[in-house]
């Protein structure tokens, strides 16, 4: 897809996030919005997947390690054709297959249940090792939050991945610099993130703007070309990206917009979509 096409899909993903969280009256919009571009790039460009055959054996795998940003993953899956976009309005409702964290048993396209922070990367490492042991060539991607990497399990998994040269593994860190209690420096600074992954024998790619498709395209191409070691893409993003009053506002980590706020967000995204259609 062209960057313009990807930008249009990212707006649809953002609208799905806002629609779902508003309908649920709960959820995590901030970190879902900051990752809208990477969700879009993975599912519309990067990964070998087939919505008509979600379990095909040779598919690439994705693990949402920061599982609370499920609204972003669900919006990407829906717009990619795994299930109806209308399902997004059932987010967190009783009986819905779209719960607050991803569930592999119920949601087409979800490769791993996640939500307990720090654990998803371990699942992804296991998948990557399995591919190596089985001589299969699928790749495994996992998305972590920058607050999440304060968890010790992240580094145990990273040590294992680097030690076992899992070059079919791509770890992505959404470095929006905010977590539920404030900035990541205020809570428990993981900086310098790039140096830490390099110390665990990762090939590290620093992306200055993780909301820019040119930079994401270059980063994932470099990751694919890297042999003999796993890759970590550390991307700077804007929490709440695309909705003006949510951008860089820690309070939007985990709450839903009210009706008035929802209307503002929808109007802003509508204008963004119209601007892209004029290009």
TrEMBL record:
Cofactors demanded by this protein: thiamine diphosphate
Domain of life where this protein originates: Bacteria
Keywords carried by this UniProt record: Thiamine pyrophosphate
Keyword Endoplasmic reticulum: no
Stored Pfam families: Transketolase_N
UniProt keyword Lipid biosynthesis present: no
All residue ranges annotated as the Transketolase N-terminal domain in the record: 12-264
Signal peptide: none
Stated family: Belongs to the transketolase family.
Name of this chain's protein: Transketolase
Source species of the chain: Roseburia lenta
């Amino acid at each position: 897809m062209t960057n313009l096409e990807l930008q249009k899909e990212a707006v649809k993903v953002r609208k799905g996030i806002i629609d779902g969280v508003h309908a649920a009256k709960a959820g995590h919009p901030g970190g879902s919005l900051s990752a809208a571009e990477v969700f879009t790039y993975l599912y519309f460009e990067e990964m070998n997947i087939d919505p008509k055959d979600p379990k095909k054996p040779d598919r690439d795998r994705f693990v949402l390690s920061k599982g609370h940003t499920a609204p972003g993953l669900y919006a990407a899956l829906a717009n990619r054709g795994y299930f109806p976009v209308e399902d997004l309005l059932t987010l967190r409702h009783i009986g819905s297959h779209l719960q607050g964290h991803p569930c592999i048993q119920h949601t087409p396209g979800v490769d791993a249940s996640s939500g307990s922070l720090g654990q998803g990367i371990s699942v992804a490492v296991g998948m990557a090792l399995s591919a190596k042991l089985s001589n299969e060539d699928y790749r495994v991607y996992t998305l972590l939050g920058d607050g999440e990497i304060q968890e010790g399990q992240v580094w145990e998994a990273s040590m294992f991945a680097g030690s076992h040269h899992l070059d079919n593994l791509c770890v992505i860190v959404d470095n929006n610099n905010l977590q539920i209690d404030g900035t990541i420096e205020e809570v428990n600074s993981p900086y310098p993130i790039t140096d830490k992954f390099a110390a665990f024998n990762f090939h590290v790619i620093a992306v200055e703007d993780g909301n820019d498709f040119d930079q994401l395209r270059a980063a994932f191409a470099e990751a694919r070309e890297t042999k003999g070691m796993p890759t970590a893409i550390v991307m700077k993003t804007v929490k709440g990206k695309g909705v003006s009053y949510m951008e860089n506002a820690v309070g939007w980590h985990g709450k839903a917009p009210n009706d008035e706020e929802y209307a503002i967000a929808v109007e802003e995204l509508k204008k963004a979509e119209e601007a892209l259609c004029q290009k």
